[in-house]
Structure to design on (363 residues):
């Protein structure tokens, strides 16, 4: 399952394409260069290398504001002294696409507004006591496009403005990428939904540790539950990796991230048919999978239990197994820095909030 509460242009992506399109892939011939740019951490609004505790209230009305709530991680200088900021930014009809577009290692509060000319509205997170102010508005994409949280597709340390367009006849995907530094624009054809029942485009992730994110999307066949990831080069559109992993009917599929610490993003499927839920992580480099129980499962995908989330909450450079418990507004995670033996967490937000790093906002 990865389309629950899907908010981005579901019509084009839900379409079942009868035409099977053959795509040539270059295979998994991956070269590795020393990585020079530190990895960006999701939802790190303060820039200290740890994901912050961030939730959002998504209104039902398209014209009502989005309410963002961010609690700093760690709680400094001591427990229960975490700073908290809550502010309205964007509208219910906007896409929620926070990432570091400015390049200061801090996640920017960002939405994409559909329109004849789509616009990314980027604001720096208000660390001080002032309100939030717009930093820049960048025209890119158009209504019907799928805006993404962005990836750093050229390795300059900044997320790039990215929308993905689905050809309604062929199911082919075209990625429109605007460089955050130079404004240079490029169009990269990569992948097709083919005969899959459903698909989701994920934020970019680095699969070969060269400091440059790859393009990522996933498809599913509902009858069989087969979930297939497609990873492509963000410059050439050449295929980098295809991997079947997880079961659409029993698992939440989170966007890939590096859980093993080798600089390469890994695949994640959180099985909801077990109690507790089981986090299966597929090491993308070795194609080996480990399973670990964590969190209250949600076998009906009703959204009332623990919501799996992404991020590095202990700041050791590895993603952590983590959930947001909506009933008591508390984040829980396994410290990867302690070999996943210690559960840590923080109360933040309010009961019923949506975690920013969860699948509801397409992570
Ligand atoms: Ca970039
Ligand atoms: Ca890469
Ligand atoms: Ca890895
Ligand atoms: Ca970690």
């Amino acid at each position: 399952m990865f389309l629950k509460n899907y908010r981005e242009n579901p019509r084009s992506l839900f379409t079942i394409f009868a035409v099977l399109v053959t795509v040539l892939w270059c295979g998994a011939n991956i070269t590795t260069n020393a990585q020079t740019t530190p990895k960006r951490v999701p939802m790190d609004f303060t820039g200290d290398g740890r994901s912050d505790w961030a939730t959002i209230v998504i209104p039902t009305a398209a014209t009502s504001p989005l309410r963002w709530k961010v609690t700093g991680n760690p709680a400094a200088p001591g427990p229960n002294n975490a700073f908290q900021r809550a502010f309205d930014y964007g509208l219910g009809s906007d896409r929620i696409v926070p990432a570091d577009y400015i390049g200061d290692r801090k996640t920017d509060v960002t939405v994409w507004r559909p329109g004849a000319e789509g616009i990314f509205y980027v604001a720096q997170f208000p660390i001080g006591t002032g309100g939030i102010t717009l930093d820049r508005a960048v025209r890119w994409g158009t209504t019907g496009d799928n805006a993404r949280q962005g990836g750093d597709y050229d390795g300059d340390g900044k997320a790039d403005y990215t929308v993905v367009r689905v050809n309604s006849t062929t199911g082919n995907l075209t990625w429109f990428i605007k460089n955050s530094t130079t404004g240079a624009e490029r169009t990269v054809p990569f992948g097709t939904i083919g005969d899959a029942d459903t698909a989701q485009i994920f934020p970019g992730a680095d699969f070969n540790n060269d400091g440059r994110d790859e393009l990522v999307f996933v498809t599913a066949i509902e009858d069989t539950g087969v979930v297939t990831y497609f990873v492509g080069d963000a410059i050439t559109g050449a295929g980098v990796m295809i991997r079947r992993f997880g079961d659409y009917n029993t698992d939440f599929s989170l966007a890939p991230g590096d859980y093993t610490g080798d600089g390469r993003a890994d695949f994640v499927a959180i099985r909801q048919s077990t109690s507790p839920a089981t986090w299966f992580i597929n090491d993308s480099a070795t194609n080996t999978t480990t399973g670990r129980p964590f969190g209250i499962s949600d076998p009906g995908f009703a959204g009332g239990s623990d919501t799996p989330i992404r991020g590095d909450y202990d700041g050791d450079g590895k993603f952590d197994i983590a959930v947001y418990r909506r009933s008591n507004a508390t984040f829980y995670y396994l410290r990867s820095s302690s070999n996943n033996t210690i559960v840590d967490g923080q109360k933040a937000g309010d009961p019923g909030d949506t975690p920013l790093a969860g699948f509801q906002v397409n992570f």
Observations:
- The chain has a mean pLDDT of 88.
- The longest helix spans residues 10-14.
- The first strand starts at residue 53 and ends at 57.
